[in-house]
Amino acid sequence: MSRPKRLILASIFTVIIVITLTGCIFAYQLLSQGCLWWECAPTRSFDVLDLGLPSNLFPSNGSYHFIEVVYGENPSIDKGFQTIQWESSGEAIYAVDKYANNEKSLLGYNGLKNAFSSAGVYNSLWSAPDISKSISSADNFFVMCGTLVTNGENCELVARYQEFVIYFNTTISEKMTTQDFQEVVAFIDNQIASHIYEK
User: Fold this and answer.
1) 185: exposed, middle or buried (C-beta count within 10 Å: 0-12, 13-18, 19+)?
2) How high is the pLDDT of residue 34?
């Protein structure tokens, strides 16, 4: 075989290897992160474990189950979950979902918002507190308060901060008032903004 033919074959073989390796790298990135580099959320110096709620935001006799991370859940890539319970019927649920990018987090936000706003868990809705001053950093947010079908009053928040979607739901009572709910919302907003925007 002549030298030019060997060079052509070597070049073709090299191109095939490069294309194959590049395809494998793209496939790995797409499967492991759910996006390609240029569309993925930036690397963060924190994870969902760093976004838990402290006990001083809730009644003093509560029991706290801290956030655990679940990797690779579809469609979110990280998930944190926390429950707080006090007395016989007081409960708060807090969840943080991290998505691969803003587009996927918007889909997650809309899905969660629609699920809770149309789930039929409320007998009646009442005017939710104005949290616009408490939640200045969110890209999107939704608040709903009402009397549950199972009795008892409740307020919930769904908010999106770039690739993160936050869900917070709490019993409303003398121990946990709508003012307390607003304080938790303000804490969530300040905490995630300080992590994302490094204020």
Assistant:
1) buried
2) 58
pTM equals 0.78
- Point out the least confidently predicted range of 33-37, 55-59, 194-198: 33-37
Q: How confident is the model at residue 73 (pLDDT cuts 50, 70, 90)?
A: low
Beta strands in the chain (DSSP E): 63-65, 70-71, 78-86, 90-98, 122-126, 140-148, 153-161, 164-172
| Residues 6+ positions from 46 with CB-CB distance below 8 Å | 195
**Cα 113 to chain center, whole Å?**
12
Three-state DSSP at 1 gives: coil
- Token pair for 6: 């060997």
Give yes or no for a contact between 47 and 67, defined as CB atoms under 8 angstroms apart. no
CA–CA–CA angle 141, 134, 165 (5° rounding):
30
**46 in Cβ contact with 67 (< 8 Å):** no
